[in-house]
Amino acid sequence: MINLNKISLKFGLWFLGAMLILEVFLFIFLHTSMVDSRIEEELAALQARGNSHRDVLETSYKEETLHHIAVMEAKADTEVIITDQNQNIIITSSKLDKEEQTIITKEIKQVPRDGVTLENRWKSEKYISTITPFTINQNQKGYVYMFRSTDQIQGLISRLNHHFIAGAIMILSLMVITILFLSKALTTPLIRMKRATEKLSKGDFSVNLPDMGNDELGELSRSIKILAEDLKHLKEERSEFLASISHELRTPLTYIKGYADVSRRKDIGETDRDQYLSIIFEESKKLSNMIMDLFDLAKLDKNTFVINRMEVELCSFLHSIYEKVLPAFKEKGVELDVDCNKNVQVMIDPMRFEQVVFNLLDNAIKYSEPNTKTSISVKRENGTIVLKIEDEGYGIPQDDLPYIFDRFYRVDKSRFRGTGGSGLGLSIVKELIEAHDGTIEIKSEQGKGTAFFISLKELP
Ligand SMILES: Nc1ncnc2c1ncn2[C@@H]1O[C@H](COP(=O)(O)OP(=O)(O)OP(=O)(O)O)[C@@H](O)[C@H]1O
Ligand SMILES: [Mg+2]
């Protein structure tokens, strides 16, 4: 909780920092350009006023006109000083102060007809000023000095500053609100997902996350939901598996314990004892087979199962298996047939693959009546080799087919109590085939028979 709050804090601070820098730059730029253009405008206006006085003077240079100009300026924000060409004052609109005095005593070089700016340092000086020359009758010349107090300009700028500060405060508060909202919107789903994963790690798989849309957060939340379901499934599978194991181990152990107990009695005949001992032997064999199978499965699960693949010619390999299993088939009265006389090279671990075929043939014997036929055949199908093992046995009901490769899964457990194994055979077969990068499929019809199809890559 605290950590995620930190994320939102970090996110917020970064965002705020970045926005602040941006805003400060923007404001400085805006401010200076506004102030500059304002000053330029003021200077241009001052200059224009001086120029218009010049025009008036040049049309009628009279005492009256001079007076008129002075009166006009006395009433305005600006001030005027008119001098002759030696900078001797002819008339002023108000009393001169020291600063104005210094400006008009400055030496003047060539001034263009439309005048120049004499002072534009509005921050440090008391006045900004311009000068415009005038000429009357070619010889009598003079200058119109215009002044404007910088107090007013400074007032203007400080008003502008106030506007800027108000604007900045408004933008800043808007930004803070937006950031708070954004970081909340971003971190709330994160906090939810964090809680969900915490729940998962504690073994509670009832994760309840709302749909968060199609963005990255939504994807993450969907992945967490999938993970929760997988974990739940795994957990259920594991407890089911454990329950089946203990159940499967208990049955032969009960037999062993019971018959061992009976065999210990002194009052039983030799033949009975022999029979009991052979039951004990059979059941222990079953147990040890089952434990070996479980071991294999555990190794396959952990991926520590080593298969040593090598190039093997499949047909001769199948024929040698045929020789080995034929006696068992004969004993049960089931015919066995191998149809394979091609030269088919595959990469398999012969020992493990033999285990696969043995398991399938073992099922074929176990789940077939005498006088039926089991056949093994090999076919090429666009680049892959399909090994088919088909029997004419009891078949498997359609409802059971999807689970047939599950561990401990057996069809009709009660009916095959005597013959039935532990239900591990096919799950081992499937894992082994997959370890060989192959696939296995099943087709079965109740009462007609079952066929397994193993597909493998053929070596060129
Ligand atoms: N060829 C088949 N014909 C009919 N039913 C079959 C056949 N092969 C498998 N089955 C059914 O599928 C179940 C699972 O087979 P699997 O080989 O996994 O276990 P099992 O033969 O019972 O025991 P195990 O092989 O571990 O000794 C069997 O119990 C049987 O009901
Ligand atoms: Mg089996």
Description:
By secondary structure, the chain is an alpha+beta fold. It has 3 domains: 2-156, 2-Layer Sandwich (Beta-Lactamase), CATH 3.30.450; 216-301, Orthogonal Bundle (Helix Hairpins); 310-457, Histidine kinase-like ATPase, C-terminal domain (Heat Shock Protein 90, 2-Layer Sandwich), CATH 3.30.565.10. The chain contains 9 helices and 12 strands. The protein has helices at residues 2-59, 63-75, 98-105, 150-201, 216-264, 270-301, 314-332, 350-366, 425-435, and strands at 78-84, 89-92, 116-119, 127-136, 140-149, 310-313, 335-339, 345-348, 373-381, 384-391, 439-445, 449-457. The strands form 3 sheets. The protein has a 5-stranded antiparallel sheet with strand order 2-1-5-4-3, sandwiched between helices. Strands 7-9-10-12-11 form a 5-stranded mixed sheet, covered by helices on one side. A hairpin with a 3-residue loop joins strand 11 and strand 12. Helix 1 runs antiparallel to helix 4, helix 6 packs parallel to helix 9 and helix 7 (314-332) runs parallel beside helix 8. The two termini are 60 Å apart. The structure holds adenosine-5'-triphosphate (ATP) and magnesium ion. Magnesium ion binds at residues 359, 362-363, 421, 425.
